Inverse folding.
């Protein structure tokens, strides 16, 4: 029994060693990103369906990067002077929901609510917020849609 | 580059009419009215990261995932996806029809793409190490670059020509890198407008010829102090007689629309309870583009007019301000 366990442990260790690290990109920025890590846990991403064109934090050696080909969403991490940052650090499954950290990337800043994006159920049905209270996705009711159209039909400034 | 032809009925990004010539320039002292016109639904999950509008009315929008929507008057709209791994800080219609220039924030380079999305060339934008590209706007024969200088801990605007940069504006030095005040850029023929993303939401006008800067003062806004950190300004737009900025709460549908007159005096703040943001001005028209979320994300054309009983001749020194 012990031998079997030992073999299994060796096999797992060999797989870990032989698995190649993800390629590094954007070395100019990556050099500034040394020794900073993603805020969310890797388990958050693993629970979601992978989709090409989406982004997440990866590590190659000591260099962290924000690379494509990962979790659902189109802006799951950002790379800046602090390193690679998950969109909503510490929010568990919510970390995979795209959110714009600076408010600079989206003019409206509200994604359409999609239940499969969430790791846990929303506090308010049809609405997702990150740990800062920012609405990152929601479903609008027909009344709300009509209200938005009415309120924005003519603006007096 | 993967391309998808979008039918006009689905994503009618076609310009619906020829641009109306500007009438005799007059400035309104009273209310400004924005009236919604053409509504253009955008694809699901398309987040507008930036927009460019060509002099001929061609519009291109890109997302953080390097997806493009673009089309011009009388043309079908094409939705495309760059395969290149890059972070688009700036986009420009290329030197030949259908080609593109991209200012890549990841590498600090300009990338040239042919209409198929195949990279044809690259060159350095001349950014020293420690300067992070935030935004690029192609103007004349080079880029206007908004840069985060993490070494000097300040925001910088530079003009790039043939790989050489000349500093136009430097923000104040921050106590920490995270404390650097960041700005959106809006390029005008003779100025660049800088809109501070966070409170106090200053709008700084920088003369392209001299680098001289002045600030449009923003009064304290009706935002609770405990939620001020969740409000962001979007890039300023210039009208024929003034400047508009939309400030958005990231925690809800509250918006504040700010207006300054042609002389740079603050006029009015208008609250709006709707997911809405100003996007770009359409050149040669009294019209602008705004984004709103009404079910899906929409791009809406607004035409503006001034109160007819409060028109006054536009001061000569502001006639080139649009």
């Amino acid at each position: 029994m012990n031998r079997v366990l030992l073999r299994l442990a060796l096999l797992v260790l060999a797989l870990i060693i032989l698995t190649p690290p993800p390629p590094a990109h954007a070395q100019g920025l990556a050099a500034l990103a040394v020794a900073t890590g993603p805020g969310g846990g890797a388990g958050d991403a693993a629970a979601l369906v992978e989709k090409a064109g989406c982004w997440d934090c990866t590590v190659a050696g000591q260099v962290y990067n924000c690379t494509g080909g990962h979790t659902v969403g189109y802006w799951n991490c950002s790379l800046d002077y602090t390193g690679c940052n998950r969109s909503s650090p510490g929010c568990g499954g919510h970390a995979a929901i795209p959110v714009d950290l600076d408010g600079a990337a989206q003019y409206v800043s509200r994604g359409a609510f999609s239940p499969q994006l969430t790791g846990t159920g929303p506090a308010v049905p049809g609405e997702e917020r990150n740990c800062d209270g920012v609405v990152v996705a929601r479903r609008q009711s027909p009344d709300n849609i009509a209200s938005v159209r009415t309120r924005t039909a003519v603006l007096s400034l | 580059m993967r391309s998808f032809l979008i039918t006009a009925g689905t994503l009618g990004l076609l310009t619906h009419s020829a641009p109306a010539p500007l009438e005799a320039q007059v400035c309104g002292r009273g209310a400004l009215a924005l009236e919604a016109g053409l509504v253009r639904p955008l694809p699901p999950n398309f987040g507008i990261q930036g927009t460019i509008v060509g002099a001929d009315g061609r519009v291109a929008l890109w997302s953080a995932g390097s997806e493009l929507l673009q089309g011009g008057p009388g043309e079908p709209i094409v939705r495309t996806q760059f395969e290149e791994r890059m972070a688009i800080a700036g986009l420009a219609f290329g030197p030949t029809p259908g080609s593109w220039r991209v200012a890549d924030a990841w590498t600090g380079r300009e990338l040239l793409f042919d209409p198929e999305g195949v990279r044809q060339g690259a060159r350095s934008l001349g950014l020293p190490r420690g300067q992070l590209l935030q935004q690029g706007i192609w103007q004349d024969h080079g880029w206007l670059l908004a840069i985060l200088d993490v070494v000097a801990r300040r925001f910088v605007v530079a003009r790039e020509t043939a790989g050489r940069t000349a500093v136009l504006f430097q923000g104040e030095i921050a106590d920490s890198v995270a404390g650097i005040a960041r700005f959106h850029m809006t390029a005008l023929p003779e100025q660049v407008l800088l809109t501070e993303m966070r409170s106090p939401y200053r709008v700084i006008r920088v003369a392209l010829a001299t680098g001289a800067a002045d600030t449009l003062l923003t009064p304290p806004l009706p935002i609770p102090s405990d939620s001020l950190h969740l409000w962001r300004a979007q890039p300023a737009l210039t009208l024929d007689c003034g400047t508009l900025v939309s400030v958005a709460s990231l925690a809800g549908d509250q918006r504040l629309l700010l207006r300054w007159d042609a002389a740079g005096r603050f006029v009015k703040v208008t609250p709006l309870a709707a997911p809405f943001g100003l996007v770009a001005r359409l050149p040669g028209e009294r019209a602008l583009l705004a984004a709103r979320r009404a079910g899906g994300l929409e791009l809406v054309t607004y035409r503006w007019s001034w109160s007819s009983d409060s028109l006054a001749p536009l001061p000569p020194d502001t006639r080139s301000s649009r």
